[in-house]
Amino acid sequence: MEKKSSSTKDFIESISVLQFIFTFLFMGVACIILMGYLMFTSLWLLPMLYLSWQILDWNTPESGGRRTAFVRNWQMWKHMKNYFPVKLVKTAELSPSKNYIVGCHPHGIMSVGAFSCFGTESCGFAEAFPGVRSCLAILAGLFRIPLYRDYIMSAGLYPVSKASIEHLLTRSGVGNAVVIIIGGAEESLSSSPGVNTVVMKNRKGFVKLALEYGADLVPVYSFGENDLFRQVVLPDGSPGRRLQALFKRAMGFAPCLFKGERWFFMPYRTPVTTVVGSPIAVPKVASPSQEQVDHYHQLYMEALTTLFHQHKESCGLADTHQICIT
């Protein structure tokens, strides 16, 4: 009986993870194909009405979106979290009277840690940080895809654009933690087991925004994120790597060649521990100088490095592991 219960639990967790992966990889394309197909059927009026409404609703993603607690609290997200499992670790308080820009590292292939901890309530963010609302910012182009945009908005995801971040930090009150996966698509290309590389030396826009709006900076590291898939990392300068770079410039994300543990797509059951560091106090400066941006960027990099070394052993890494900031 116990064995049967365990196998049922494993199956439910696997299906929950599989739906996330299929949503991540294919749902956007499926929505575009569906809308295009319906245009040439007797149901053509439905996509026409939807697209007309979407035009009227065009700016909603950058104006606070349509977040729903119903979607964020789906039981499915808890099953997905338990598959790895994903764990949120709090190291300091975040005041609900302030706003924050949270930098999450590394990107990995699918940012499972960031999504589980900040895009859903499965890891207990609201309980860990009372009065603070996590707002995960993702690729802005995804909010132009019909139907798909409504789904990701309902989960409380936002475009990673200046207009969207400005709205969250200036027109949505206080207690907002805007989570940005700093390394983005470029960082995903270096994702491999045992690798702790973050792309950040030339990523300073988030620091400038923090200064402009007086939002404190918070470093976050997801230990185990890079261990969920096995990626074919193409050498720099190779035709394949140049093609990935070209695709990234055109589409905003990079096609990664990876495989999982089962069914090709299923990630390895490797624990992911997302550690939220201490906030770095940032003054509000309407027009920050480059020196100010560089200063707080350096403080952020040092805080992230310290966070990594303080928690690496408790998160399963050897003392010899180092973080590489490029």
Question: What report would you give on this structure?
Answer:
- The structure is a single chain.
- The protein has 326 residues and is an alpha/beta fold.
- The chain has one domain.
- 43% of the residues lie in helices and 14% in strands.
- The chain has 12 helices and 11 strands.
- The strands form 3 sheets. Strands 1-10-7-2-5-3-4 form a 7-stranded mixed sheet, with helices on both faces.
- Helix 1 packs across helix 4 (75-83).
- The longest helix has 37 residues, at 2-38.
- The radius of gyration is 20 Å and the shape is globular.
Features:
326 residues, alpha/beta, seven-stranded mixed beta sheet, two-stranded parallel ribbon, 12 helices, 11 strands, 43% helix, globular, lipid metabolism
Low-confidence stretches: none
What is the beta-strand fraction?
5-15%
Percent range of helical residues: 40-55%
The total count of strands amounts to 11
Taking all residues together, what is the mean pLDDT? Answer: 93
Query: What is the gyration radius calculated from CA atoms?
Result: 20 Å
Count of helical regions: 12
Pfam families: DAGAT
Enzyme class: transferase
GO cellular component, one term: endoplasmic reticulum membrane
Keywords: Acyltransferase, Endoplasmic reticulum, Lipid biosynthesis, Lipid metabolism, Membrane, Transferase, Transmembrane, Transmembrane helix
Summarize the structure.
With 326 residues, this protein is an alpha/beta fold. 43% of the residues lie in helices and 14% in strands.
Strands, helices and their partners?
Blueprint: H1 2-38, H2 45-56, H3 69-72, H4 75-83, E1 86-90, E2 100-105, H5 112-119, H6 125-128, E3 133-138, H7 148-154, E4 157-159, H8 162-170, E5 176-181, H9 184-188, E6 197-198, H10 205-213, E7 216-223, E8 230-231, H11 239-251, E9 258-259, E10 272-276, H12 290-311, E11 324-325
Parallel strand pairs: 1-10, 2-5, 2-7, 3-4, 3-5, 6-11
Antiparallel strand pairs: 7-10, 8-9
Helix pairs in contact: 1-4
